[in-house]
Every structure is written in structure tokens, then in C-alpha cells.
Amino acid sequence: MVSAESPRSLSSARPTCLVVDPHPALVDLVAAGLEEAGFDVVARVTTAEDALEAAARFHPEVVVGDPDLSASDGRPVLGALHATDLTMRIIAFADAAELGPAETAMLAGVDAIVAKQSPLGELVRVAWDAVAGEHHVGRAFRAPRASRTDWRLTASESLTLRLLADGLGYREIATRLGVTPDTVRVHTAKARKRLGAATRTEAVATALRAKLID
Hints:
Distance between the termini: 21 Å
Oligomer: single chain
């Protein structure tokens, strides 16, 4: 089922956006960042079918989506969305270790590719560039790929990231775990370092994609 706000009015200056990813927590994190930056997120979905339904209903100007999702008939969701509306700007929010060659994605109708390992601010900037008609291929897809790190988190670090993914703040997490907010910050900082993440949002996204948390 599509979770959405009302469609954008004709007088609105906020670009409309659809966010699709199989991880609900990541969808919410991305949507919150885009809304804070001035986008009108008209739908947040986790399946290809819901994405296609939302696109037909709201006709968003920008789609931020996981390129690994496919519809029940086997069509890659981002390509299917592009086929329904050639004016829609498509941003692949992809795992740098899993997406195929950037050129292939661009030829399939994707206007930009941003690694999920990137700071959320980079995705926001690329989304605005996409509205302006610009294309972008993230550095992670231009440079030779490094071998994947054997990531390991402690139980405290994993639980902290899980609660961050649920939308809790440092003080709320501290109360839940019976520790101080400073201890929560330490767990977050260590998790970020282990995952090579620049921000806590990036750490949560990386941990979700690597199935270190669910």
C-alpha cells in the first residue's frame, strides 16, 4: 500500500519526489532529508509495484530509488518508471558494491547515480541538480572498486544503529539502553568508523544494506 501525502498543488514551488527502497527505515531517512531540503515527498514506498502505482498517481518530478528492485513481471523498477514518464528525473540510490557499470544504468534512463555509502547531503545536492536537468555519477562508481570490508559491529553498536534507524534521538536511545547520551554518541562514532561512514545516516544506510541490522 502506498503511503503518501496529497499531490502537489499547481502553485507549489517545492519539487515533488518519490522515494523507493526495500528498507522502510532508509526510506524515512532519505525522505526526511529531502523534505528538510525543500522537496515535497509525495510517496514513500518499499516495493516496485507501489512505486509504479505512486508514479502514476502523483507524477513526481524526481524519483530516488534502489535500482535492484524489480516488478513482479521482472522489469527493473527505475527503468519501468522512466518508461512511464520521460520527463521524470531518476536517481539511482545504489550500493556501490552491487550496482553494475554506471554507463549501463545511465543508458537505462537513470539521470544520476549516488552511492548509499555517501553522506545524505550529497544525495540532496544531486536531487536539486537533477531538477535542473543535470546528470551525475558518484565517485564510488567512477573509481575502481575496493574489496568489501569484513564489517563487524559490537552488540551495542548494532543496537544503537537499529534505534537510530527507528528514528530515535541520542537521549531517547540513552534512556532505552540505560546509558548516558555521551555513551550513545561513542557507540555511533565507533560504528561509523568501522563502516567507513562519514555521518550517522550513512552508517545506518550501510548497516541496512549489509544486513548488519534489519
